[in-house]
Amino acid sequence: RHDQRVREIDDTYLRSLIVARLPNDGDGIAVAATADGATAVWTHGSVNGHPVDNTTLMYGASLAKQIVGLLVAVAVDDHRLQFDARIRDYMPALPAWLRPVQIVHLLHHTAGLPNVTDSIAGIARDNQAVVDRLREAPPTSNPPGTAYAYSNTGYVLLAEALANAYQEPIGSLAARTVFVHLGMTDTRLGGPAAASSRPNPPGTIGDGGLWTTIDDLN
C-alpha cells in the first residue's frame, strides 16, 4: 500500500513489526532498500552469537530462483540448453509422464508438476530426494503449458539439468559464471548451512540453497 497513512508510519514502528514476527528473541535479520542510487541498511539481532551486519552470511531462500534463471539464460547462450528442449533430454531417469515438459515450462512455473517439495510430505534433504519422489508421484491433471502453479520442484529440476549439461556441480557453475563476475565474493549456491536457523533450511538447491550477504546483494 502506498497511501498517506502508510507513508506516515515511522521507521521505528515498521521495525517493531518485523522484529515481532521473528520466531525467536534475538534472531538475526538484515534489510536493505535502494532508491535514487542510495542504499539504507537496517540490521537486528545476531547469527551464531555475532551481531548481524552487512557481511553476515544469511539464507536467501527463493532468491536462488533468480540465479538459476540467469544460469539457464547463460546455458542457452552457450548452447548447453535450449528453452524448448525437454527436461528428460538432460535427465533421462525422470518418469515417462514428464516427457512433454520443456525447460521453458519449468522457468515459467507452467510444467504442471506435483508438489513433491511440500513440507507436509517432509522436507526433502537434497535434490536427489526430489527426483526420487517424482519417480513415485502420479502426474497432475494439468498438461504442461496450460496453467501457472508456483513450483519449487521445477527449479530443483532446472538446477539438476544445468549441472548435467555442464557436467559440473551447480554451486561451482554459479560461482564461476555469475558470482565472480558480479563481485559477490561471499555468496554461494548450496553447501552447508552457514547460520543456525529454526527450522533448518532445506537441503535442496535451485528452489533455494542461496547463502548471501547484504553487501553482495547490493
Question: Can you give a write-up of this model?
Answer:
It is a single chain. The chain is an alpha+beta fold and 218 residues long. It has helices at residues 4-8, 11-20, 64-77, 103-107, 127-136, 152-166, 170-179, 214-217, and strands at residues 29-35, 38-44, 46-47, 50-51, 58-61, 188-189, 210-212. The protein has a 3-stranded antiparallel sheet. Strand 1 and strand 2 (38-44) form a beta hairpin. Helix 3 (64-77) packs parallel to helix 6 and helix 3 packs across helix 7. The longest helix is centred in the last third of the chain and has 15 residues, at 152-166. Mean pLDDT is 88; it is low at 1-9.
Radius of gyration: 19 Å
The best one-word shape is globular
Helix content: 25-40%
pLDDT < 50 stretches:
1-9
Mean pLDDT: 88
| Major sheet details | 3 strands, antiparallel
Topology, element by element:
Layout: H1 4-8, H2 11-20, E1 29-35, E2 38-44, E3 46-47, E4 50-51, E5 58-61, H3 64-77, H4 103-107, H5 127-136, H6 152-166, H7 170-179, E6 188-189, E7 210-212, H8 214-217
Antiparallel strand pairs: 1-2, 3-4, 5-7, 6-7
Keywords for this entry:
218 residues, 8 helices, single chain, two-stranded antiparallel sheet, alpha+beta, disordered N terminus
Short structural summary:
With 218 residues, the protein is of the alpha+beta class.
